[in-house]
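Thread: Newbie trying to understand structure tokens

Hi all, I'm a second-year student working on a class project, and my supervisor (Dr. K.) asked me to get a predicted structure for one chain before our next meeting. I've only ever worked with sequences, so writing a 3D structure as a token string is new to me. If someone could post the tokens and maybe explain what I'm looking at, I'd be very grateful. Here's the chain:
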Amino acid sequence: MIARAAFAVAFALACAQAQSAVIAQVISPVSVVIQDGATRRVAMLPGKPVYYCGLDAFVDWASPLIGQPVRSSRDAGITVSIDGRDVALDDLFIDRGWLQPPVLDEGAQVALAERRGGWACSRAVVPFELLHTNVDPKILAGIALNESNYRGRAWPWTLNVAGQGYFFKSREEAYKAIESLLARDRCDFDVGLMQVNWCYHGKRFASAWAALAPATNVAAAEAILTENFARTDSVAKAVAYYHSANPTPGRAYLARFAQHLSMIEAGL
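---
Reply by user tm_fold:
Sure, no problem. This is what the structure looks like when written as tokens:
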């Protein structure tokens, strides 16, 4: 925000007499050339480029922005009009999956978990490398592939209701489904990337909406795994117990996890 505001002030002062400033070139997700009359300046956006699909993929996506008018404000930074509303340029890049902000807020988490833009080409473990706190991200990724696997990747808007899996297009759709279940006093469902069971662990979340947030969902899973490990002193049992302490389903679950972990370590 400080970097955004600092550039916005300088940009506004430089363009005070201008009729219109436009995007002349998009160099990368963190550097954009702004043209004001005969003057060109490079706007540096805070964060890290998401290059898993390569720079060319980003440049192709960004090409419609060339020539688009931009505005500046202290709060929003450099903005461009998208569908009739002003959107901060860095927020646009984050939302579309081409920029990783300094702090991975919920908007950035959604882009990451939905594998938008450059995240689409990242390995299965990458979201968990960014979201984890105290559990090996490969273990989290392996469990997530057991739990919410959709086309080879963990999907954040997944529910399992009484053994039946449902994949929703958006967080909003998944949330509506949870609200409908709760309105009928049901708790026999699992939520999100890590499929946290609501009957047993719903109390770990501030709300059903919060439970769907990728980082919050992963944090709950980490807490459960940590508790399982403390109780069993075994990583294998901690993983098996994540699904069931009953030996038979636990062993089958652990076998699937081992397969996924092997694929992850091979570069999935």
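A couple of things are worth pointing out once you decode it. The first strand starts at residue 21 and ends at 28. The chain has two domains: 2-120, 126-265. Feel free to ask follow-ups in this thread.
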